[in-house]
Hints:
By secondary structure, this protein is of the alpha+beta class. It folds into 2 domains: 30-143, Sandwich (Immunoglobulin-like), CATH 2.60.40.3340; 153-239. It has 2 helices and 10 strands. The protein is rod-shaped and about 155 Å long.
Amino acid sequence: MNHKTKQILVPTIFIFLIATLVLVYPLGTKSAEAHISKAIGNYVIEVGWNNEPSYAGIMDEVQVTIKKGGGNNLTPVINALKNMQISIKYGTVTKQLDFVPSSTEDGQYISPIIPTKVGSYSVVMKGTIEDQSIDMEIPLDDVSSADVLNFPQTGSSNDASVNMGQVGTILNQLTNDIEEAKKNSDAASQTVLNAAKSFQDVKDSTDRLYMIGMTGIGIGIAGVVIAVIAITRNKQQNS
């Protein structure tokens, strides 16, 4: 290989390696481009979702990274959140977050959460980090709908047909149950009416027997009285 060939080949290989690193490196690292960094005094606070993009209804984590220093001389702050109160905010609704140290990076803290709605969230931070007072609100990347991940999509025509068939079956069963209950109710009502009629018949018969009995007793008493009077008169005449 002559000197001229080397002059052409070496820069070409170098450019190829640089291009390969540029293309491959982003694929092998986790993107944090949606994270937001804020410099407060001598501290740099970075906030974002741990898994991005974040989807509604899917577990994610709020990630907070605290470092101290400036430029390229940043050092992680250990136990940085011990005097901090951090909450997540959606509209006017807030929720207190509990953070634990990340197992992958010093100075990084995570709090698991499932965002339930699509839209904008933010992290509200109040307290102190070492000797630095903190009171700020940092927006998070918007939460997207999980519909883009669903397969097959819910609410399809087939699902609707199946659901309508199930509803029809349930309605038919309910109709049959109602008709059966109505028949049973009518039968029970008729039984009660028959019992009431029988009771009334017995009562009427009892009343008639009572009247006949009382009449008989009255006639008997009258007969006894007449007999006593007749005997008394007969004795008086014989005397």
